[in-house]
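Support reply, case 0932

Customer input (verbatim):
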Amino acid sequence: MKHIYMEGISTSSTIFFHTPSNRIPDFFYYPVCIGRYFCNIPYKTDRNRYDSFLLLYTKSGKGLLSVDGQRRELLPGDVCLIDCYRPHIYQALQEWEIMWLHFDGELSRSYFQYLTDKSFFHTSLKQPLSYEKDWNRLYEQFVNHEAMVEPLLSQYISQLLTHLALAKEEGGYKAAPDFIDDTLKYINRHLSSDLPLEFLADRVSLSPFYFSRKFKEETGYSPYQYILTSRINLARFYLKTSKETVKNIGYTCGFKSEHSFCTAFKNETGQTPSEFRRN
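Our regenerated output:
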């Protein structure tokens, strides 16, 4: 693991590098580097070239991707496959937790071209927790200092790419309805406010029942679960990167009391906020 000294990135962020065997078969994928960043403004990566492909997944918060004049806001549950052989920029627009992987291999470009004829492929995953689970299996190989078995690493990367292929085949690559994008942006900008279902539905002139059903179809979460998960993820960020009290962080993230915050946090993570911060 390499320590990170970069403006806008929390010191609790991680990055691991990998040098593949010189005998690796052409049909294997291999990781170049992998990491989990807790970012905030002014974090920005601006490169002319980085010889690899990048899987960039937004766990929480919001970022912005720019490639060849195309721009895309990145929200929780979004994953992009980027051709880093071309100039590219990605940056935090607010607190932004990202799980990323640079990888390569002889088949990488063919897979990329199967997904898209543009500079990057973007989708909002319908089952983001499944993607996170597969990503963590690869990430934990590095965290736990396990032996790097090239066929296994290739398999893990292939599984991550399969999520994107399924999204393409199922039509998941199509843009979500405008009211979903608008609602996600609104929620992420107002996590400290009350966000009742009736209010969110009324904002976009839909009935609560229809709004809730379409929201889950597009995001994989109910509105309540999405808001709760977003608040917990924001709280995790503040616990890692600030010295604010648990009580103040809870209020900042939209919880009405310290007790409700601690209860929800432990139900979601298995730890109290204080335990999470210590660990």
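We compared this against your earlier run and they match. Two observations from our side: The chain has a mean pLDDT of 89. Residues 119 and 217 are 27 Å apart (CA to CA). Please reopen the case if you see a mismatch on your end.
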